[in-house]
Design goal:
By secondary structure, the chain is mainly alpha-helical. The chain has 2 domains: 94 residues, NAD(P)-binding Rossmann-like Domain (Rossmann fold), CATH 3.40.50; 98 residues, Alpha-Beta Complex (UDP-galactose 4-epimerase, domain 1). Helix content is 43%, strand content 7%. It is built from 8 helices and 5 strands, in the order αβαβαβαββαααα. The strands form 2 sheets. The protein has a 3-stranded parallel sheet with strand order 1-2-3, covered by helices on one side. Helix 2 runs parallel beside helix 3, helix 4 packs across helix 8 and helix 5 runs antiparallel to helix 6.
Length: 209
């Protein structure tokens, strides 16, 4: 990174003193949500926001989540708390309000590639597709497809969030920022399938974070 003129500062969400060092001399900060349970991430993000305030940064952009302040999504408490922490500072900010990642559906895509039907318990949710199942049937289908037991409750919660409309947001932000439309769903699916065929897996963040 340094050969590209990029300074790299090491920080640690769990150690505010390291964040102070990493934030020193920084003007703008992009805060990307951490991994972990909500309580852990809320504390970690609070440390990062406090360090940014102490460092006197002039702008914070935070990934956040669609409809973060009123969302019923299982990840929403982290994002609401982080937004609130940023709002309590005097730092100018932008909440990017990320929606769900298509990579969250990799388990279902792999099932389809193996010959299974596409299944969802998202009901009439705007990003729910195809054959509708209730949560119990969806969980059974995911288990039968070899999805690890600890992942299934997370997938169910995402489906519930979709079903309840918490990710139903229309926006042209990507087009404005990228200067082109977002990748169409059919092209995105082709890219994921090619990646799965090439690598046998997908290294992707699974968060609506």
């Amino acid at each position: 990174m340094s050969v590209r003129g990029i300074d790299v500062h090491q920080g640690d969400f769990d150690h505010p003193e390291f964040l102070d060092t990493a934030s020193a001399g920084v003007d703008w900060i992009l805060l990307v949500s951490a991994d972990g349970d909500n309580d852990t991430r809320i504390h970690q993000h609070a440390h990062a926001v406090a360090a940014a305030e102490r460092a006197g940064v002039s702008f914070i952009a935070y990934t956040s989540l669609a409809k973060a302040q009123e969302s019923t999504n299982l990840f929403a408490p982290t994002h609401k708390a982080t937004e609130d922490a940023i709002l309590k500072t005097s730092i100018p900010y932008s909440f990017l309000r990320n929606n769900s990642y298509l990579e969250n559906e990799v388990s279902s895509i792999q099932g389809v590639l193996a010959g299974a039907p596409w299944v969802t318990s998202a009901g009439d949710g705007k990003v729910g597709w195809a054959l509708q199942l209730d949560d119990a049937a969806y969980a059974e289908a995911m288990s039968g497809a070899g999805v690890p037991d600890f992942v299934i409750p997370i997938l169910l919660a995402i489906q519930k969030s979709i079903r309840e409309g918490s990710l139903d947001v229309e926006s042209d932000d990507f087009k404005k920022l990228l200067g082109r439309p977002a990748t169409p769903i059919n092209e995105a699916l082709v890219q994921i399938v090619k990646c799965l065929a090439t690598t046998g897996g997908l290294d992707a963040r699974r968060n609506v974070e």
